[in-house]
């Protein structure tokens, strides 16, 4: 019968080996707390910069501002390019024809009024609003009168013949000097308005479409010379016929209206204003 072995403890066994593991644990804990302490320290300078940036962003009155990125235009097809070129060519041709018509109209008016122009009783000018014909009111009307002289009717009829087959809007303006009429007589407003209406009526009688006509009495509010001399006052007493050759070309007017409406003050026409 075999005998049981008896366990004999090893006399070389180290009972303090657990201290190695404990020391490793303590070292790891120490390193962990050092790291935690390091990251818990706030950089005061960086904190202030961050705080100021956040306050500036959230305190803005306009709120969040979106940054607009540049848009890239979609490439145009060959057909679109061709249509645009065609449109520009047609616009250029239309503008050329308009200028030629306006120049032809001005030439015809200058020829029709050549005799009056030589005598200083008429002028034909081309301005921002079109062609303007200024006629001496002394030649057209008697002093203080609103009925056209017979010779003046012939001149207005000749002008109407030139403008009859055009489609330009026509503005007829009556002007006076600054001298005030005698008490009880027609005011300058009334005289200028009635003279403009008399010329307008001749245009209508000659077949000019009424929708093209505008009559305006401007009294002494649009002088072309000083009213301190007889010569200047004579220039201011006139009837202007404006042919608005640029009426359909708003760019040429630089945003200005083709017709400038004039408000007649209440009572300016007087009680003796005659009916047409």
TrEMBL record:
PROSITE patterns named in the record: OMPA_2 (PS51123)
List the lineage, top down: Bacteria, Pseudomonadati, Pseudomonadota, Betaproteobacteria, Nitrosomonadales
Q: What is this protein called?
A: Flagellar motor protein MotD
InterPro entries, per database record: Bact_OuterMem_StrucFunc (IPR050330), MotB-like_N_dom (IPR025713), OmpA-like (IPR006665), OmpA-like_sf (IPR036737)
Q: Where in the cell is it found?
A: Cell membrane
> What is the similarity comment for this entry?
Belongs to the MotB family.
* Keyword Transmembrane helix among UniProt keywords: yes
The record's principal subcellular location, in a coarse class, is membrane
Give me the Gene Ontology terms describing cellular component: plasma membrane
Annotated region (Disordered) at: 252-276
Q: Which residues form a coiled coil?
A: 76-119
This protein's species is: Methyloversatilis universalis (strain ATCC BAA-1314 / DSM 25237 / JCM 13912 / CCUG 52030 / FAM5)
Q: In what residue span(s) does the OmpA-like domain sit?
A: 127-247
| Parts of the chain that traverse the membrane | 20-39
Q: Which UniProt keywords apply?
A: Cell membrane, Cell projection, Cilium, Coiled coil, Flagellum, Membrane, Transmembrane, Transmembrane helix
Its record classes its membrane topology as:
Single-pass membrane protein
